[in-house]
Design a protein that fits this description.
One of its GO terms (molecular function) is peptidyl-prolyl cis-trans isomerase activity. Keywords: Isomerase, Membrane, Rotamase, Transmembrane, Transmembrane helix. This protein is 30% helix and 23% strand. With 292 residues, it is an alpha+beta fold. Helix 1 (4-28) runs parallel beside helix 3 (62-75). Residues 27-31 and 33-76 have low confidence and may be disordered.
Amino acid sequence: MSSNQERREAAKQKLERQLKERAEHDRRRKQLTIAAAVGGVVLVVGAAVAVFAVTRGDDTDVAAEDEITNITDEQDPFEAPEPEPLPEARSEALPPTVDCDYAESPMEAAREAELPPTSDVPTEGTVDVTLEMSGGPVTLTLDRAKSPCTVNSFVSLAEQGYYNDTECHRLTTGGIFVLQCGDPSASGAGGPGYSFADEFPADQYESPEEIMYAQTVYARGTVAMANAGPGTNGSQFFLVYDESPLPPAYNVFGTIDDEGLRVIDEVAEGGAPGNDGPPNNPADIATVTVRG
């Protein structure tokens, strides 16, 4: 039988390994400009460090040593969940039309925009939108059935010219694989002066905590909203060019056509500083055209 010291050292090494794995997991989940989740991640990791601190050093208290061994071996609270595919549809079908709430933001808009229509927003059918980008056209098919208020906002901004002459300011090439666009200031903090609620796939979950610690796969070709926490959707969106494990906290509202994916692939091939930053290859949006 191993000595107390050996058992304690083994428990320490296992916990350190799990903390490292959790840190990598959280890095990959790095929110697309999320701030609210960071506090939660820090609290979780901080709690783990506190548990480790109780048992470190030369303390020979076997009860404490057994306690941490049981936590790591049996409960394994730091093990990352296996990512699951996003569901195909909302948890419950919507009526033919819905009302949307767009709350004015205290922050100044990156570019002036009028609020979208709020009543009788359709929940059926699709809308085709073409982004004329540096490398060629990127056509998005927006799905009203999944996230009608998101589609309504995006179409409104596009028709107002909000996205014209903007640059996609962020490319990630490790862990998650997205091109983030929609901020006229290109700072990552800009928005239209209003925000709106989360839709699909957040509708599948009962609480923000459940959403944040779930793990789903955003498939190649997905179009989703970036945000800074629950209910903070604005104008920024991201285009997924490879499977990306993320919490289901980002409104999915469309897909990218094959030609558009080739354009984004060329941007991604150029990389970004530190695998997360402004793309080295240009990714500017000249105009956005709405059809249908």
